[in-house]
Specification:
The structure holds 2 protein chains of 2 kinds.
Chain A (H helix, E strand, L loop, with lengths): L9 H6 L3 E5 L2 E6 L3 H10 L2 E4 L4 E6 L3 H8 L12 E7 L5 E11 L2 E6 L4 H11 L6 E4 L5 E6 L3 H6 L14 E6 L2 E6 L8 E6 L4 H12 L5 E2 L2 H10 L34 H10 L3 E8 L10 E4 L2 E12 L4 E9 L8 E6 L2 E8 L15 H10 L3
Parallel strand pairs in A: 3-13
Antiparallel strand pairs in A: 1-2, 3-9, 4-7, 4-8, 5-6, 6-7, 9-12, 10-11, 11-12, 14-17, 14-19, 15-16, 15-18, 16-17, 18-19
Chain B lengths: L6 E2 L4 E6 L2 E6 L1 H7 L2 E5 L6 E2 L4 E7 L3 E5 L4 E6 L1 H5 L3 H4 L8 E5 L11 H12 L1
Antiparallel strand pairs in B: 1-2, 2-3, 3-9, 4-6, 5-8, 6-7, 8-9
Chain lengths: ~375, ~130
């Protein structure tokens, strides 16, 4: 391994005996106790993730609102200050540069969180697009450690060490405050399909917070969670992953993210192509698959129907929550019919799978924190 | 610890030799590196396997791993229990988590395998 980047929490992963892997150029924990155990911890209690590898880009200036509107497919004009929005960011041809979260401070200040493996590419893209606007885009990725506490007990545990009233932070909202005396940005967001928070702090306080959160939750089963479980958790909740469901050759409409593409707003990059695609018919659709025969469909395995290639698997795994083998596949739209049987080509062998609804897992909304955005997201994400 | 009566290859698999019947399985180190095993694909009884060639796969949540035959021969027994409970490979790789039994044509390909002590030295070396 040559010159992998390390997060401010690297030493903590060594202490916790994590298994480390190269993830997009970062030396990251893939698991601690084991992927399945960690997965269940997040679904039933709460788990702590080091997501410091994520990229943060700050956009400020008089034209910030107009600029972000051009940059992304979703609409931030109606977003209230202190709220967050999920959006694809497209190339002019409709392919996806990345998917991201936009935190709105006000119309002249947005904070954009992007995927680790795309951070440099995104910053270059954003800077290039910013030329004709009165804005300054700054890559702040090095200035933050980011922790995610996810799971039904996340609020209960975190409330023990903060004077911020967490129940006031609605889904997809953020605020500034102190946790364990450390100044941070905290949002009710995540990538697991569970309730939870993402916390941004100065790198030097990362380890303190990490330890404190594990300590206050230790008796209740809070554990550190690696990228392995992060992937199975997001996959069950049908949250897309760049490089799997999303990419430069896939449009957000194909990926089932149509609700985040606002064709009725003024111009944005990729709009013409996406509008045309919507009018002429979206050629491919993302579907859920359940294995009928024995086997696990993995990313990029071909999908066939009657011996003809009709698409490929974007993500596939054993699902710890459902206890069966499931997958997501991008296939010809005319074959995206519930109940249809397809062949997954596993090492040259046809293995049968059935098309099923792709929102494999949806949490019970006991806490009542789901705001409109999430309702819309679930609705959309299950619409296929 | 790795049982002394077994032979080991560099792919972290073991062979247990009883007469001309050879049992294949993966080592404790292999299951540890793979993580939670969730799927095992094995050949049918009566098929033949070839030394140095893949005879099936072991999959964890995150990884797919080919398993290699250390002798050529006919499959005489398949552990169907691990197909239903793949986690046996994690909990008992040297016991209930064995994979297949092969009636060997010729045991000479086993000569290239390592003893338990050699395998442990190999593991120590691989760490660095």
């Amino acid at each position: 391994m040559n010159e992998l980047k390390r997060t401010p929490l690297y030493e903590e992963h060594l202490v916790a005996k994590a298994k480390l892997i190269d993830f997009g150029g970062w030396e990251m924990p893939v698991q601690y106790a084991g992927v399945i155990d960690e997965h269940h911890t997040v679904r039933t209690k709460a788990g702590l993730f080091d997501v410091s590898h994520m990229g943060e880009i700050d956009v400020r200036g008089e034209d910030a609102l107009a600029f972000v509107q051009i940059l992304i497919t979703n609409d931030v004009s109606k977003l209230e200050d202190g709220k967050i929005l999920y959006s694809p960011m497209c190339y002019p041809n409709g392919g996806i540069v990345d998917d991201l979260l936009v935190y709105r401070y006000n119309s002249q200040h947005f904070f954009i969180v992007v995927n680790a493996s795309n951070a440099d590419k995104d910053y270059a893209w954003i800077t290039e697009q910013a030329k004709n606007f009165n804005v300054i885009a700054e890559n702040l990725s090095e200035q933050y450690a980011q922790l995610a506490l996810q799971g039904p007990m996340a609020e209960t545990f975190l409330q023990r060490i903060t004077n911020i009233n967490l129940s006031h932070i609605k889904y997809y909202s953020f605020t500034h405050g102190e946790i364990d005396g450390v100044s941070c940005l905290i949002s009710r967001t995540g990538y697991t399909g569970e309730d939870g928070f993402e916390i941004y702090v100065a790198p030097e306080y990362g380890r303190q917070l990490w330890r404190k959160i594990l300590e206050i939750g230790a008796n209740d089963g809070v554990k550190p969670i690696g990228l392995g479980a992060r992937d199975t958790l997001r996959f069950e909740a049908r949250l897309p992953l760049y490089g799997n469901e999303l990419g430069a050759e896939i449009t957000p409409l194909e990926a089932g993210l149509g609700i985040f593409v606002k064709l009725d707003k003024a111009d944005f990059i990729g709009k013409e192509v996406l509008r045309a695609q919507k009018e002429q018919g979206i050629p491919r659709k993302l579907v859920g698959l359940e294995m009928i025969d024995r086997g696990i469909a993995r990313s990029h395995y071909p999908l066939q129907k009657d011996g003809q290639e009709i698409g490929f698997i974007t993500s596939g795994s054993f699902s710890p929550t459902l206890n069966k083998n499931i997958a997501l596949g991008l296939i010809r739209a005319d074959l995206a019919i519930q109940g249809e049987i397809l062949d997954v080509m596993i090492r040259g062998k046809a293995v049968k799978a059935k098309i099923i609804p792709s929102l494999f897992y949806k949490r019970d909304n006991k806490a009542g924190h789901l705001a409109k955005e999430s309702g819309a997201m679930s609705e959309k994400l299950s619409a296929k | 610890m790795n049982p002394v009566e077994l032979k080991y290859n560099k792919e972290h698999e073991y062979a247990k030799v009883e007469g001309n019947i050879v049992t294949f399985g993966i080592t404790d180190h292999a299951q540890e590196s793979l993580g939670d095993v969730v799927f095992v694909e094995l050949p049918d009884i009566g098929t033949t396997v070839t030394a140095g060639k893949s005879y099936g796969t072991v999959e964890s949540v995150k990884a797919v791993s080919d398993i290699m035959a250390s002798v050529s021969g006919r499959v005489v027994e398949v552990n169907t229990q691990v197909m239903d409970s793949p986690d046996l490979l994690n909990s008992e790789p040297y016991g209930e988590g064995w994979l297949i039994k092969v009636e060997a044509e010729d045991l000479s390909s086993l000569d290239g395998l390592m003893t338990a002590a050699e395998y442990e030295a190999f593991l120590a070396q691989e760490e660095h």
